[in-house]
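Ticket reopened. Same input as before:
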Amino acid sequence: MKKNIFASMFDQKHRSRTVTYLIVIVSYIVLEILMKTGNLSSLFTSLLVPVCAYIVAAIGLNLNVGFSGELNLGQAGFMSVGAFTGICVSGALGGLIPNTVVRLLASLIAGALMAAVFGYLIGVPVLKLQGDYLAIVTLAFGQIIKSVITNIYLGFDGTGFHMSFVDNKVKLEPGGKMLLNGPMGATGTDRIATFTVGVLLILAALVIVYNLIYSRSGRAIMAARDNRIAAESIGISVSKTKMLAFVVSASLAGAAGALFGLNYSTLLPNKFDFNMSILVLVYVVLGGLGNMTGTVTATVILVLLPELLRSLQDYRMLIYAVILISIMLISNNENMKVTAERLKKKLSRKNLKEAGNE
Amino acid sequence: MSEMNNRTPVLKVRDLGIDFGGLTAVNELNMTVYDREIYGLIGPNGAGKTTVFNMLTKVYTPTRGTIELCGVNTEKMNTVDVNKLGAARTFQNIRLFMKLSVLDNVKTGMHNKITYSPLEAVLRTKKYYAQEKEVDEKARELLKIFDLQDSADLIAGNLPYGAQRRLEIARALATEPKLLLLDEPAAGMNPQETAELMDVIRFVRDHFGIAILLIEHDMKLVMGICERITVLNYGMKLAEGTPEEIQADPQVVKAYLGE
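Engineering reply: fixed in the latest deploy. New output:
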């Protein structure tokens, strides 16, 4: 039985899944060892949690864009909902749950749930649209969410939450705490997000998306993407399946946002702007639509790249853009693919010959 | 047609019509398809045959008339409901899920036979494994019938044309319909493939015990396997009857060959 499980992990269908899990786990172990032995610069250490958050958001978006085939330009909006929900929950539970890991998990779940609710509400009108129109409307919703959060003042004291859209209306009892300060965002947050929980969240996101894809729902999601009319003709409700993908994607973004938010003591609502949505989309597209291994590696590379290029100073973003364009051209160029294949064959033949000579 | 009397009707179409703007595409169509019957719908190009299929499956909403499927009026239903009620179809221009594997294409057809929830799929419960195993076995059985068992893991878009057509029928059958609608199943097939297809259609009728309504231009196929035929011309019924009656009908000959 044990042997069976091991064999099925590496069979054709599940190989990429196993590889993705292994990449995540091995990188975690290596990074932890580097950190413990003090071989990781403070810059890299500070990037670990944000990278985890971006990966989870990108995994979620891949479900939406890659598998469901709907271009969503509002992923940052859902991250923002999750981030500020997570920060509020963590702030409110501060006295109740002293254990930071438990509090972090509670905040992540709260962020995911709130983002899922928003995903559902936004999905109702949005999923009636298709293609470019859907992309534009999700973009608009991302901006709306940002504007709304920029104007929320939320305080917490012994009597519960106090919310207002005007600063001076929030009156707190002594001992109360402001959680959201309108355009100032969240300040004085406990930085409880940890790399370990971040990696666990990545693994959870991978399990959720992979298990969903290799099931009835996943087949329906991809069927609705490939041919809407045919999917309906065999009894698949396209609107329901699209909604499922949209909501799961939003809730993963929410959990990612909560992890991201709890990594900083100060977080501005402006952080989750259109640029961030596009950035996450770039990770997904460059990693390959519907390719989870690609999403994870592309996110890591593209988050680290600007930092590695810091020595180039002013030319940094220029070089970054050139690298992005090159990756896109190379990965989509038929000639390049053929050449790569040929190289691969040549190399493997050479290896064979050498092995034979020995 | 006294032998039809002890058969139950699967499909009853009464005074069916549809207008597109000012154009009447189909009008006053009456048709009854009985259990285990192979029924042909023929007519010159543009006669409205595919439009009838689209009305039966509620891709279009009829302007007039009623459609009764398995004794239920489908007036308020959508495409998904009609399939759940028991009608499955194929398309004139093949509509497979081109990026899914051949096996997964058939499995999507069993969507409504599976009862585990998305949450149960994520948690990989016992129910998930049990139902997935059952679906896998059933799907492979269906592929075998259509001689596609060796292509199970191929991407559907990479199949040759004839195999894609067969896969589309397999996928439709996976929904366990009582009425199978085939829109030009032999289009683009050579005589050898068409002959095989005729055998498959007969086998499907006998093995699954379902009614089959088909649109086809290949007269050898239509006359060879259909028990009854309706001829459409300009959206109206021109004639109805057995293959012999249709072939002898002067109006049908006129519609096809001109005067």
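Chain A has two domains: 1-40, 49-311. Chain A touches chain B at residues 12, 207-208, 211-212, 215-220, 222-223, 225-227, 229-237, 244 (CB under 8 Å). Please confirm and we'll close it.
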